[in-house]
Every structure is written in structure tokens, then in C-alpha cells.
Design goal:
- It is a single chain.
- By secondary structure, the protein is of the alpha/beta class.
- The longest helix has 30 residues, at 180-209.
- A hairpin with an 8-residue loop joins strand 1 and strand 2 (16-22).
- The strands form 2 sheets. The protein has a 6-stranded mixed sheet with strand order 3-4-5-2-1-6.
- The chain contains 14 helices and 12 strands.
- It has 3 domains: 4-116, Gyrase A, domain 2 (2-Layer Sandwich), CATH 3.30.1360.120; 132-205 and 375-420, Up-down Bundle (Four Helix Bundle (Hemerythrin (Met), subunit A)); 210-365, Rossmann fold (3-Layer(aba) Sandwich).
- It has helices spanning 26-31, 82-94, 104-111, 117-128, 132-143, 145-169, 180-209, 223-231, 274-289, 303-316, 352-365, 376-397, 402-420, 426-433, and strands at 4-7, 16-22, 42-49, 52-62, 73-79, 98-99, 211-217, 249-255, 258-264, 292-298, 323-329, 342-343.
- The mean pLDDT is 88.
- Helix 5 packs antiparallel against helix 7 (180-209), helix 6 (145-169) runs antiparallel to helix 7 (180-209) and helix 6 (145-169) packs antiparallel against helix 13 (402-420).
- Bound molecules: guanosine-5'-triphosphate and magnesium ion (MG).
- Magnesium ion (MG) binds next to helix 8.
Length: 440
């Protein structure tokens, strides 16, 4: 195994920087330039390159396996000038260390069993997190709450599979080992738990990647003006020509501690223009993907007209499970007697604070769970697992022969193994670890 080195702090100048080494030669390479090191001790030392002193540093040795990667590691905290950082790194590389690839430290931690794959991914999420909720979820995933849940699920699956296989082995002798009632119960538990996890993805995803909010409505009602006002930024083009926005425009902001991802869309109308029609198609798809739909109308519009528009929308986009908020814009010009929805003036900024509060109301009211699915790869695997276990239950119900049921169970086991990394191809591993920056 080679010894790798990298600067683990952000690129550029800082008060301090950390250069890390991992691999069997870490200590030897470092000690050529510093005082003798002691395990798990921070040692003050000069860092020398031959006779020349490069910097005063604090060096910590971590003997295997008690280190982040599970290998022998050395961390050198130096002063953060770009010259000093680079110089130390160069000296270590001249001595036989190799420059680490992106995510290689964490990849080694995974390969040495220090982290499972879902925890390694949580490290990347934690580094990426920009709000309190996302960081809390990533930390909980890293600390293993989620891994424990998966392990339980896996154990239940293994138990069920082995019971079924036992039955298979003795099928000639006409004995039933586990009664079908018990098998059924176990399968139902797995189905319930995997279902609960996949359901947690909606909230988990909203917390991590931002709550998706689509702004839709007829042309010229002020959707783009509303987007800009909510973002506090001139993001989308506004004009009094209906049909200004042709493509979806996306940007996010933080509201009350939650990341919110707004998508402004092309105004909904019948159009003969091919490009505009495509834009409208995209609007509908954005609405489908959103958790919250802001349906914008003119404040002067009458109740019956608004109701009709909402009915049309419901005909094109399945609305159950999403909240639809009617936003009555241009209140500065006057308003009809219709009393529902939010009266705002995107242009003047009236009513926006209340609207923002309503947008995050749903997420804000939900308790942030300790275990929630935030990762699309896991979501897909768990959805497949859930499908397989539903098959198993059907099989048990209809007294299908045990060997067919076992095939579905093996399938389910494969999917859960792909999340934690027990059965994962090199390709998947590479795509996961290249998300990291060098030095992680
Ligand atoms: N008086 C008033 N005018 C507004 C308000 N909001 C938007 N407008 C005006 O309405 C016109 C259309 O605004 P846009 O934001 O481009 O409307 P849109 O819904 O994005 O239109 P499309 O992209 O064509 O679908 C512009 O002239 C805006 O200045 C408002 O609150 N009050
Ligand atoms: Mg627009």
C-alpha cells in the first residue's frame, strides 16, 4: 500500500493549514523532517528540509488502526501561507509519498472498515452542508444511526432468507420448519421498515438539497418578479410581454434556516410556438417535482376564474401530497373580493414575509428525524428492496414454492448490500469518492 499525502485544508492562504500523510511510510517520511513523534500526541517541532527550516509546526502521529483511514497517519499543522503548504507537500512527495487522489483518505477508511459506504457518503454531505438541518442529518448518518437501521433491516432479511432456505433443503421430507405465520410477520416488518425509510426521502431530500418550490401560473401574472423578490436578486428577466420566461429558472436561498430551491417557469397557456410549448411542458414537470407549488394569479382575478385554473392544473399535474399555495399578485393595483390565498405585491415587496413563512411551514413543523434518507442512490436501492419484499409477501400469500421466494429475497439482500458497500462495483465506488475534494 502506498503512502499518500495531501493538503487537507481549503486551497489558498489561511492562518493554519494541515498536510496529511496516510500509509505505512507516513512516520518515516515525516520524521526525516521533524523531531521524533509519539503516538496520538501533538508535538511541537521545526519542519526542516535538509538544513533549511521551512516552518514551525505541530505534528500528530496516529498509529494504525486508530486513525481516520485505519492506516498509520501523520498530520502536520503548519502556517497557512500557500508557499509553506506547498513546500511541505513537495518535500513529502520527494521523499516517496504520492499525491492523494480526490476522496482517497476516505476511500481507504472505507476499505479498512473504518466507515461503511453510507457513512463515507455522509462525510461528503457534511462537508457540503450549508444549513443546520442538512448538517445534522449528515452527522447522524456519519455517526451510524442510519447504518444501524440498515443493519437491522439486513439482519431481518438474512433471518427470513435462511428460514426459507431451510424449508427448501428439507422440502422432500414434507416438514415445515418455520410456520408461514412467522415468515409472514418477518416479511411484513421488513416491508414496513423499508417503506418508512423510503418515505423519509421526501423530507430528507428537502432538508439536504433544498425544498423544491415551483412558481407556476398564466403568463404575465408576475412569476419572475416574485422569484426575484423571494431571492432578493435580479435572477430572471421580467417584462410586460406575456411569454417572457421560456425555460425554467432555478435558484435557492435560505428561509428560516431551511434551504429552499425556487423554480420559476414559463407561463401556462395554449401556444402554437414550438419553443414556448416545450417551455410549458417543462413548467408542468417542475410542478410535478415540487413539494410546494406557488400558483400565481392576478389579485383582481375573480374566485370562479382562479378555481377553474386550479382545476386545469390538477388535470395536468397530480397534486396530492403537495401543497398548493395561491399567490394573488399585483395587490398594489387592487384586488377582487376572493379571500383565499396570499395577497402580495411582488413589485413592492408587500406580503412576502408571510408568504415565506407559509412556504416552509410544512417542513418547519415536522420534527427533523435522526434517521432520514437523503441520498438518491440509497433511495433507489431501498425502493427496489421494497418492491422485492412486496413480491416475497405476495409469494408467501399465494403459497408459491420456496425457491421462487428465495430469489426475491436474494434480490432484496443485494440491494441493501449495495448501500452499505458489501456488494458494490468499483465503478460505483469511484463515482462516490470523486465527489470528495483532494485531501479528504
Ligand atoms: N403593479 C404590479 N406589477 C407587477 C407586479 N409583479 C409583476 N408586475 C409586472 O407584471 C409584468 C409581468 O411580470 P413577469 O414577472 O415578467 O411575469 P411572468 O409571470 O414571469 O410572465 P411570463 O414569464 O411571461 O409568464 C411586468 O411588467 C412586471 O413589472 C406587482 O406586484 N405589481
Ligand atoms: Mg416570467
Amino acid at each position: 500500500m502506498s503512502t499518500i499525502a495531501a493538503i487537507s485544508t481549503p486551497a489558498g492562504k489561511g492562518a493554519l493549514a494541515v498536510v496529511r500523510l496516510s500509509g505505512p511510510e507516513s512516520r518515516n517520511i515525516a520524521e526525516r523532517h521533524t523531531k521524533p513523534l509519539e503516538d496520538h500526541r501533538a508535538i511541537y517541532s521545526l519542519f526542516r528540509d535538509g538544513n533549511e527550516v521551512t516552518d514551525e509546526v505541530i505534528v500528530t502521529l496516529y498509529e494504525a488502526p486508530r486513525s481516520y483511514t485505519g492506516e498509520q497517519m501523520v498530520e502536520i499543522a503548519c502556517h497557512g501561507s500557500t508557499y509553506v503548504q506547498q513546500k511541505i507537500l513537495q518535500v513529502l512527495i520527494a521523499d516517496g509519498a504520492r499525491l492523494a487522489e480526490a476522496g482517497e483518505f476516505t476511500r481507504r477508511a472505507f476499505l479498512n472498515g473504518r466507515l461503511d459506504l453510507s457513512q463515507a457518503e455522509a462525510v461528503a454531505d457534511l462537508i457540503d452542508s450549508t444549513n443546520a438541518a442538512a448538517s445534522r442529518l449528515a452527522l447522524s448518518q456519519l455517526r451510524g444511526g442510519y447504518a444501524r437501521k440498515l443493519k437491522e433491516l439486513r439482519e431481518e432479511l438474512v433471518e427470513l432468507t435462511s428460514l426459507m432456505e431451510l424449508e427448501l433443503d428439507f422440502s422432500q421430507e414434507d416438514v415445515e420448519f418455520a410456520d408461514r405465520g412467522k415468515l409472514h410477520e418477518l416479511a411484513a416488518t421488513i416491508e414496513r421498515e423499508s417503506g418508512r425509510l423510503t418515505e423519509s426521502f421526501r423530507l430528507g431530500n428537502a432538508l439536504k438539497n433544498g425544498l423544491p418550490v415551483a412558481i407556476v401560473g398564466k403568463p404575465n401574472v408576475g412569476k419572475s418578479t416574485l422569484l426575484n423578490a423571494l431571492l432578493g436578486d435580479d435572477r430572471a428577466i421580467v417584462s410586460d410581454i406575456p411569454g417572457t420566461t421560456r425555460d425554467t429558472v432555478e435558484d435557492s436561498t435560505v428561509i428560516g434556516g431551511f434551504q429552499v430551491r425556487f423554480v420559476d417557469t414559463a407561463g401556462l397557456r395554449r401556444s402554437d410556438d414550438a419553443i414556448e410549448s416545450q417551455g410549458i411542458e417543462r413548467s408542468l414537470r417542475a410542478a410535478e417535482r415540487a413539494e410546494v407549488i406557488l400558483y400565481v394569479v392576478d389579485a383582481e382575478e375573480e374566485e370562479s376564474a382562479v378555481k377553474q385554473e386550479l382545476a386545469e392544473l390538477a388535470g395536468k399535474v397530480p397534486l396530492e401530497g403537495r401543497s398548493v399555495i395561491v399567490v394573488r399578485n399585483k395587490a398594489d393595483k387592487g384586488a377582487s373580493s376572493y379571500s383565499e390565498g396570499h395577497l402580495v405585491s411582488a413589485k413592492r415587496g408587500d406580503g412576502l414575509e408571510e408568504l415565506k413563512r407559509t412556504i416552509i411551514e410544512n417542513v418547519a413543523q415536522q420534527e427533523i428525524p435522526d434517521v432520514a434518507l437523503t441520498n438518491l442512490r440509497h433511495y433507489e436501492a431501498l425502493t427496489k428492496l421494497h418492491g422485492a419484499i412486496e413480491h416475497v409477501i405476495e409469494g408467501l400469500d399465494s403459497e408459491v414454492s420456496a425457491d421462487l421466494v428465495v430469489i426475491d429475497l436474494r434480490d432484496a439482500l443485494f440491494h441493501i448490500g449495495s448501500i452499505t458497500g458489501e456488494v458494490t462495483s468499483d465503478e460505483v465506488l469511484s463515482s462516490i469518492f470523486t465527489r470528495f475534494c483532494i485531501g479528504k
